[in-house]
Amino acid sequence: MKLKQILLGLFVAVHAVSFAQENKKEVLFTIDDKPFYTEEFARVYKKNLDLVKDDSQKDLDQYLDLFVGYKLKVSKANKMGLQNNVAYQNELRSYRAQLSRNYTTDTKVTKELINEAYQRSLKEIKASHILFTVDENAVPADTLKVYSQAMDVRKKILSGESFDEAAVKYSQDPSAKENKGNLGWFSVFRMVYPFETAAYKTNKGEISMPVRTRFGYHLVKVNDIRDNRGHVTVAHIMTLKGENPVEAETAKTTIEEVYKKLKQGESFESLAQQFSQDKSSSSKGGQLQRFGSGELSSEEFENVAFSLKENGQISEPFKSEFGWHIVKLIERHPVKSLEEVDAEYDNKIRKDDRSKLINKSLNEKLSKKYPVKREEKVYASIKTLVTDKIYSQEWDVPANMKDFNVKFLTINNDKVVNATAFISYINSQQKNKINIKPVSKLVDHLYNKYLEESLSGYYNDNLEKEFSDFANVMDEYRDGLLLFDLMEREIWQKAKTDSLGLKNFYEANKVNYQWKDRVQVNIFSSTKESVVKKAQGYLKNKKSIDFIKGKLNTKDAIEIMVKSGTYEVGGEGMPKHEKVTKGVTEIVKEGDYYFVTQVNQELPKAIKTLDEARGRVINDYQQYLEQNWVSELKKEFKVKINEQTFAKVKSELQQTK
Q1: How many CB atoms lie within 10 A of CB 246?
Q2: Where are the domains positioned within the chain?
Q3: pLDDT tens column, 155-187
């Protein structure tokens, strides 16, 4: 079992309406006197009713047994103290943070930003820029000075000075000396949001007004605009580059031979199945999943793929960092629809500057939702503590904080924040080198930030109280994660490390782990039967592979190709010969190809050794251990089922089917 199977089995994280929410909680069963309620059982059962394929699992008596078994395992995990494991707690926090994203955002603003990003994604921009650096927290006078410099340079360019020359002369981007400010082509999410906005709002050939980012002010010149080139579906044949010069040369020779056969009209798909070393795609004729710009790890491969114009067009052999390829265009696809990119863009928006717009909107709502009372005398005292030393990061928190261990804020009439917490926050913000002056305004600025963070934190901490579905999912994930850790320790890891138990299990079941008949062979193939007949004759006369290839292949035409290895008789990769015995087989035709096989050695059926079958034996041993586990847990824990309550909930659930 895997964690995903656990969560998708009993506890799939979907929103569901709780059963009998208006009724008083009723205890369905207890484990060592700990109660478990009908509400949870009914909710989980209904939630998974349409997911189970085995009708027996819909039987409520069997489902109760599964549910009790699950809770027994969780009880065992808690008894062992796995809930105190640091890795477990970190994983739970990570999941909660991920789940909470759907509750801690302004959906309206997010949707508007997704729509904006999608419209921009339809185009790609080629632009240059000139950067005038200024600190993100610079005082207004310094900011105005840099802005004026940017405006002066803009006027010079509009008056005739070359943008490229101005970039070399004035830009504080170090790369400008080499690239003259040219940033190449980019699309949405490639640049910081304010820069991206300026680029998309500036017409081709024009220069933007100075735009402020965290790096400073930019002048953006849009050199060109083009449509997004979309996605493509391609197939490829690949030979790996190899670990040494001999293997590298073999890879190159093989791809050149394959290309010659393609030029002779042979099937791309068949050649991919035989000779491509990309095992993930070779069985599918070399076909890859559709992709767009930047989605593969090889820019060279992408450029070649997008250069193909007609479906079925085949590239010449080319080299990437992985090896040699030949690419065939199967289909071009337009850019994805808004619906297809919605989730992807949502995730990206949360990670860049756009998120500030979302946070601002949410903060405004929270400030209205939760009343805040500030102790004004305490706030005034705090202000007197902060001095100009904060600008040089030399301000220290008072040694005696006793007088400030008092109430400073009250949020929603139930959460109290001490003044010491805010003072510590001010101290932590020194590293950001905020230059707002005078000090009183700096403290006001930090207070507003602190309040926003406090309101957001309070809201996040109370999501379980605000949303019952959130609380249910967190409870289910908490149990599922505990079970995963328990299974890892008690079942999965034990199956891997219990060498004696594994060996005994193997000895008792080794008849289930057998090799089929195998042969060590050289397989010769060609689209021409006459060529294969010649190869068959040479093989019967004990000629070598190199001799046969030398006789039948020429500089301009590859007529015969060979692959060698050990295969199961009748298995994948072996031609379907009627008789496979030591020597030379008859010729068979499959698709467009003729095959003859030289069988060098026959390997009869045999029981695999434990090492040869280890992966499957471990998997079977895990299942064996798990099947016997719940019965042992029922002996360890006292389980008491309230039969009368179960009869009642069963009757109600049967009416909902």
Answers
A1: 9
A2: 1-103+467-488+610-657, 123-227, 231-334, 370-463, 514-607
A3: 999 999 999 999 999 999 999 988 899 987 788
